[in-house]
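We now fix the convention by which a protein and its fold are recorded. Think of the row as the fold of the chain written in a discrete alphabet. Here is one such record, which you should read through line by line.
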Amino acid sequence: MKAGLLRFLVEYDTRKDAVLPVIGGVSQPLLAAYSGTVVSEIEDQIGSGDLSMRSFLSRISVQAVREDEILPYDPDLVSFLNVNSPEDLLAAMKTLEKETSKSGNE
């Protein structure tokens, strides 16, 4: 994850409970910034056995952040790589190698 992107999300000017990136039209709740005020909502939801992220997001106020707002902080959107299989892991490792060598050359 890009440090600049995380900083951007945490410092995003909003009065909402969460700042949620939307990439390719898909919400990215695992890389979002959440206000400490939602802790009780999280506890209540987990306590009820409802582990759905969509359900949780429907219970709080959310500020969507468009992809074009994110690109200056992560032009290749590497912070949003999805790793669900051994093949995904290999692809992510190759991307990380490229990112590491790119940042070493800057």
Notes: Helices lie at 3-11, 39-47, 53-59, 67-70, 86-105. The chain has a mean pLDDT of 92.
